[in-house]
Amino acid sequence: MKQLDYILRELDVRKGSWPRLAQESGVPLRTIEKIASRRTRYPRIDTVEKLASYLSTGKRLAVLRVRNPRTRRPDRPGVRDACRPLAGSA
User: Taking Cα atoms as reference points, which of 78, 81, 17 lies closest to residue 51?
Assistant: First the structure.
């Protein structure tokens, strides 16, 4: 599968989380909206690489995030968390 096809499929699935995706990937929200709506048919290579990199790793990070009981904010996964198998992963 082509990288852009993967990105388009993931953007369709994650439609409600585009603002967070934009913030964490470094790609402007408007650019993500244009790519997802297929208005931008040929996005820049660096944009595609940023999104593909985030989407391929961001999915795992979202599953492994835990809340810090003191601050009640999401923590980044620690080494122990990263070693835990993901539910439904092969």
Answer: 17
Q: Which of 13-17, 36-40, 64-68, 77-81 has the highest mean pLDDT?
A: 36-40
40: which DSSP letter? S
| Torsion, CA 49, CA 54, CA 56, CA 58, rounded to 10 | 180
Residue found under tokens 């408007």:
30
Separation CA 19–CA 5 (nearest Å) = 20
pTM above 0.90, yes or no: no
Among residues 86, 82, 10, 90, the alpha carbon closest in space to that of 50 is found at 10
H-helix or E-strand spanning residue 70: none
